[in-house]
Write a structure and sequence with these properties.
By secondary structure, this protein is α/β, with parallel strands linked by helices. The chain has two domains: 246 residues, Alpha/Beta hydrolase fold, catalytic domain (Rossmann fold, 3-Layer(aba) Sandwich), CATH 3.40.50; 92 residues, Rna Polymerase Sigma Factor, Chain: A (Orthogonal Bundle). The protein has twelve helices and eleven strands. Strand 1 and strand 2 form a beta hairpin. Helix 4 packs antiparallel against helix 5 and helix 4 packs antiparallel against helix 8. InterPro entries: AB_hydrolase_1, AB_hydrolase_fold, HAT_MetX-like. Keywords: Acyltransferase, Amino-acid biosynthesis, Cytoplasm, Methionine biosynthesis, Transferase. This is Homoserine O-acetyltransferase.
Length: 351
């Protein structure tokens, strides 16, 4: 399904009080809403992904996968600030007639969710059967389930947290320092900060994977080697790969949005906020995740009323939620077959 677009003609007010006129939201849909309107699956995407979930979550979403267009009406909206169809720092500021760049207003996870709500209202979706997301996508899904508990029936949170940790914020700040060390970031051009973005992505990869991942995938066979290591070329390649499809301004703003995540803000604390979740909830952690340690998902499990917990054992670290699609399918299948309250779901491996 090709990218669709919705423009909110009112004034979109952010949590900071700043305003955006004519908010444009890019989104993708797959399948058809059934007669009972109980087959809506809404996906919240992660940091540098986009609304084409059938492209980046293959094996989990697709024609022959667990979430398919024959059974489900799948929606994924490109998030605020991301350069794939929704207003972002490279969009034209109607006041100046020029791209925003660093004049783009700061925004939070709650602002991203507020945009999702506008799109859901526009599409006349009053009931979401399953809301899910991983990482920053999970932060959005959790926030939405607290803001509108009546709209969300089932919630799936993968490799995410209730508030972003000092560890996660430190990783993000290190990436922003790399971006701002590139003086072209302040040049207000579409490719400004590209070298900094490449370095930032290299930093991020260290948090997405881990020691064991690199030891297996980037190990050298030549004991005489003193330079030009696989791990070095891998970091450079992955950094450039992001530069080719993204921009430093969106990345800078979205890492700040991730830092803002705290469901307890203005709600009497995190524990009280999590108690507001009414959805039947599945929380999935990844044993090797160093960016969102499994302790963070266990915390969600303990404080969300109707919740179940499952753990993935993957050597891919945080990125495991994008790769271990068969294991995710097995866990979710088990989840919908059982009473969830306080349930720990054991992963059943398939032959």
């Amino acid at each position: 399904m090709s990218l669709q677009s919705f423009t909110y003609t009112g004034t979109f007010e952010l949590e900071s009080g700043s305003k955006i006129k004519e908010l444009q939201i890019g989104y993708n849909t797959y399948g058809t809403i059934n007669k009972n309107r109980d087959n809506v699956v809404w996906v919240c995407h992660a940091l540098t992904a986009n609304s084409d979930v059938f492209d980046w979550w293959k094996g989990f979403f697709g024609e022959n996968d667990h979430f398919n267009p024959e059974e489900h009406f799948v929606i994924c909206a490109n998030i605020l600030g991301s350069p794939y169809g929704t207003v972002n720092p490279l969009s034209i500021n109607s006041t100046t007639g020029q791209p925003y760049y660093l004049a783009f207003p700061d925004f939070t996870i709650r602002d991203i969710v507020k945009a999702h709500k506008l799109l859901a209202d526009h599409l006349e979706i009053t009931h979401i059967e399953i809301l899910l997301g991983g990482s920053l996508g999970g932060q959005q899904a959790l926030e939405w389930s607290i803001i509108e508990p009546q709209r969300i029936k089932n919630l799936i949170l993968i490799a995410t947290n209730a508030r972003h940790s000092p560890w996660g914020i430190a990783f993000n700040e290190s990436q922003r320092l790399a971006i701002t060390a590139d003086r072209t970031f302040y040049a207000n051009s579409p490719d400004g900060g590209s070298k900094g973005l490449k370095a930032a992505r290299s930093i991020a990869l260290l948090s997405y994977r881990g020691y064991k991942t690199y030891d297996i995938t980037q190990q050298e066979d030549d004991n005489a080697l003193t330079d030009n290591f696989k791990a070095s070329s891998y970091q450079s390649y992955q950094g450039q790969k992001l530069v080719n499809r993204y921009n430093a301004y969106s990345y800078w703003y979205l890492t700040k949005a991730m830092d803002s995540h705290n469901v307890g803000r203005g709600r009497g604390g995190v524990d009280k906020a999590l108690s507001l979740v009414k959805a039947r909830t599945l929380v999935i952690g990844i044993k090797s995740d160093v960016l969102f340690p499994v302790e963070e998902q266990q915390y969600l499990f303990r404080h969300i009323p109707k919740s179940a917990f499952a753990e993935l054992d993957s050597f891919y670290g945080h990125d495991g939620f994008l790769i271990e699609t068969q294991d995710l399918t097995n866990i979710i299948t088990s989840f919908f077959k059982t009473d969830v309250k306080g349930k720990i779901i054991e992963l059943q491996k398939t032959a």
